[in-house]
């Protein structure tokens, strides 16, 4: 039995650039990896046992919607010789939290499959599983991405500091489909350019490397989510009181986060936030 740790990510910036004919959206975002986010074990089943077993702990996921089941089905369908497996997955955060943890699970499983088969999955094959799977399957700690999230524009964005990250998962949920529907109504896409969004992301990275306070990070979903959920305002005020350099919402929600230079400040902020009933999960990563 093999134990595998899978990553998640934060969106330090997120700009929606256009709606595509296929219904997806072109975007530009700065992804920051959260390593060792969740754990799973993988065990090959004996020959003759022709059924996979995927068990999830900490969240309820229907088999037909389980991204690990999708990975096995898709790659076997392409002729990859993958043995039947027993997988146990321990979730840190629920699906739809805006952290890409499901895609991180998929990326880890794909890496294992590549190892046992000696094959390498193409970017488009990973993208068919999830738009952020190519980044999460890469070795990048931070990168600026485009397309629907699969295209790396700037590789290996480097930070001068190792920031302490305080991550909150509220008890409310945010529908990605509904969020994009509202964005289509609220945002004027004409004139939005990938180059400008990329430069904005690089400016954020530069400011953080100088230790400058940024405050609310650029995310096109932020204003409507803050308006819909007053709790975000309270969380952000708490982040600021304890000296966070930057804070924001990851993806289309519901998770939010803050970056601190001092881990002690992140822990003090987390301690105060423990009193909020609206928060389901609080995580500090140094």
Automatic annotation (TrEMBL):
Sites where the protein binds ATP: 94-104
EC number: 2.7.1.148
Residue intervals of the GHMP kinase C-terminal domain: 236-266
Pfam families in alphabetical order: GHMP_kinases_C, GHMP_kinases_N
Keyword set, alphabetical order: ATP-binding, Isoprene biosynthesis, Kinase, Nucleotide-binding, Transferase
Any one biological process term the GO annotation gives: terpenoid biosynthetic process
PANTHER family attached to this UniProt entry: 4-DIPHOSPHOCYTIDYL-2-C-METHYL-D-ERYTHRITOL KINASE, CHLOROPLASTIC
The family this protein is said to belong to: Belongs to the GHMP kinase family. IspE subfamily.
Name listed for the protein in its UniProt record: 4-diphosphocytidyl-2-C-methyl-D-erythritol kinase
Source species: Thermovirga lienii (strain ATCC BAA-1197 / DSM 17291 / Cas60314)
Gene coding for it: ispE
